[in-house]
């Protein structure tokens, strides 16, 4: 008899999962099995050992310093990309996150936190209107005055979301506002792992109040990098280009120099904002550097 469980947190060779009947189980896993990720569905045997990792819908991850894909969590419905006026996002951080989500097949939602601070008139803040026109959702929140939290909570209902962003943008404050009883969940987790205190050095799947969904909290990062991929894969991160590329004269159009390029025509017509085209060119350039190094 096997028990179905959801992985909450995983390290090099051990993890914690919650069974369907709400029991927390810590287990080691054999190296022959792929490392489970927060959000993974698994089967445990009667000795509470990992029997099987069930097929995943998707994985979200990042590139490591060698450009390899490093998975963070699995089976997600959406990513919450948190940005704030302070600390100001590094250039292209938001575009990388948005592209990564789309490439992983996950809908990104932009969360502009710290709306009590003046918004600088620079990228990416002055690009948000353009992104909304392209169909991206932007939710504005302020943890200091607890505003926008209900609207954000509504978007999380019944879903599994991952929250990510630069260190200091207020991820922890948002998670605490969304999950008032986070301490209890953290305490229960520490008990089964035997770890005294919990530090957010790894991604962790948490329950939203009243079982209204799941949230993957991730450690803050200074920089978020993409992994090495082909130009075709990168294009999937810019879905608005895909439609326009149907109009390209050449099937293998690079959308850079060729005559009759549907993407460049859409940029010139203002259908694709110029800032998106330039961001894509910069990420393409980054990819060329990744593959050389
Ligand atoms: N003005 C303002 N400050 C905020 C807001 N939300 C969070 N902060 C402050 O921003 C700082 C960083 O907040 P955290 O919640 O620790 O940010 P974090 O993204 O979790 O940072 P890491 O733990 O490094 O990943 C703290 O001093 C918070 O009090 C907000 O809406 N407005
Ligand atoms: Zn083209």
TrEMBL record:
What GO molecular function annotations does the UniProt record carry, in alphabetical order? GTP binding; GTPase activity; metal ion binding; rRNA binding
Keywords tagged on the record: Cytoplasm, GTP-binding, Hydrolase, Metal-binding, Nucleotide-binding, Ribosome biogenesis, RNA-binding, rRNA-binding, Zinc
Origin, by domain of life?
A: Bacteria
**Co-factor binding details:** Binds 1 zinc ion per subunit.
Its cofactor is: Zn(2+)
Indicate the enzyme's highest-level EC class: hydrolase
Give GO BP annotations, semicolon-separated. ribosomal small subunit biogenesis
Q: Which InterPro entries match?
A: G_CP_dom, P-loop_NTPase, Ribosome_biogen_GTPase_RsgA, RsgA_GTPase_dom
Binding positions for GTP? 113-116, 165-173
Q: How does it assemble?
A: Monomer. Associates with 30S ribosomal subunit, binds 16S rRNA.
- Under what name is this protein listed? Small ribosomal subunit biogenesis GTPase RsgA
Source species of the chain: Wenzhouxiangella marina
Organism placement in taxonomy: Bacteria, Pseudomonadati, Pseudomonadota, Gammaproteobacteria, Chromatiales
Q: By which gene is this protein encoded? A: rsgA
